[in-house]
Amino acid sequence: MKSDRLLSILLLLQTRGRVPARELADRLEVSVRTVYRDIEALSAAGVPVYAERGRHGGIELLPGFRTDVTGLTADESRALFVLAAQGVHAALGLDAALGSALRKVMAALPAPHRPAAEVTSRRVLVDATRWRGGPRQAVDLDTLRDAVFTDRRLKLRYRHSGQSEDRTYTVDPYGLVAKAGVWYLVADRCGKPRLFRADRVRSATVLDAPARRRPGVELADAWEVLRRQIEERPGGLEVTVRVRRDRLGMFQRIAAGSLAGPPDDDGTGEWVTARLSYGIVREARQLLAFSDNVEVVSPPEVRAELAEAAAAVTRLYAGKAAPEGDGTSDADGSGVVGPVIPRSSAGGPG
């Protein structure tokens, strides 16, 4: 543990320059006294490190000193080569830089670890996009990225979901977050954290004024607050359903965000009872995607909502002939034309 700590101190000083002893202690989760003992150990090993006391003091390496020692273990080497989908880096204009950086890291790795790192890059792939997500609107991250990297305020023209008119906001960005293949801008508006989907930004302008972030708040902090607001907001409406057992796995995958707990499954019978939580009655229309594989038991207003929606669909298609060239056929010779509808059109392979 001490050798790892000494190496961490060395790499921090090499990267940051002068660092206060208290900051090193906080980062390494040790006391300030332990940090000074580690500095003495580095000095005894020939590392030109020194400490300056006082208000603006800190610990620093002599100018010009560098070390080529990476100190990476085999698992750390593998971890560097397990990377997210290339689209994430491409969207930020960092694809070429990433490839170049990995080549340099590979060259700097201890020889025994290189084969394992190379195999990892060919055997593990992280794809952040959801199954059958469908085509998404093109996202121009250039302006958002410039504001984030230069710490400038942003003026956004933004369209909220379900609205037909754009709204204008001046925001103070913390950074960009890619979640499940969707990019979000995390920013303060009037001193409070807000989340903006990048594909709903109609235009963005980087302002000359510096971003006015709340002191001590980083991107991860602001994101955590927003994430909790979304995931932990009260549903308000509890819906009890019964699900056909042979479709339970698909149901749990697709409705995972609305499930209020694990299904009541005793391992017998054709149907399994489950409970979901929604904000409003209309949100329960999600259940229409499961056709007759899911039935709402309660409350009555949700049953009525789904019955009304199903009736509207029936009226839409009643008495209408299939348009020509729709790919259907009466190959069975019955003269009845009808499309083949898969039992599920969402989720990944079962």
Describe the structure.
InterPro entries: CBASS_pafABC_assoc_protein (IPR051534), DeoR_HTH (IPR001034), HTH_11 (IPR013196), PafC-like (IPR028349), WCX_dom (IPR057727), WH-like_DNA-bd_sf (IPR036388), WH_DNA-bd_sf (IPR036390), WYL_dom (IPR026881). Residues 2-61 form the HTH deoR-type domain. Residues 321-350 are annotated as: Disordered. Keywords: Transcription, Transcription regulation. This is Helix-turn-helix transcriptional regulator. By secondary structure, the protein is an alpha+beta fold. The protein has four domains: 2-61, Winged helix-like DNA-binding domain superfamily/Winged helix DNA-binding domain (Arc Repressor Mutant, subunit A), CATH 1.10.10.10; 77-98 and 109-123, no CATH class; 142-231, SH3 type barrels; 237-317, Alpha-Beta Plaits, CATH 3.30.70. It has eleven helices and ten strands. The protein has helices spanning 2-16, 21-28, 32-44, 74-80, 86-91, 95-108, 114-123, 142-150, 219-231, 248-254, 300-317, and strands at 49-52, 58-61, 152-158, 167-179, 182-189, 192-197, 201-210, 237-244, 271-278, 294-298. A five-stranded antiparallel beta sheet has the order 6-5-4-3-7, with helices on both faces. It has a three-stranded antiparallel beta sheet with strand order 9-8-10, with helices on one face. A two-stranded antiparallel ribbon has the order 1-2. A hairpin with an 8-residue loop joins strand 3 (152-158) and strand 4. Helix 1 (2-16) crosses helix 3, helix 2 crosses helix 3 (32-44) and helix 4 runs parallel beside helix 7 (114-123). The protein is elongated and about 85 Å long. The two termini are 44 Å apart.
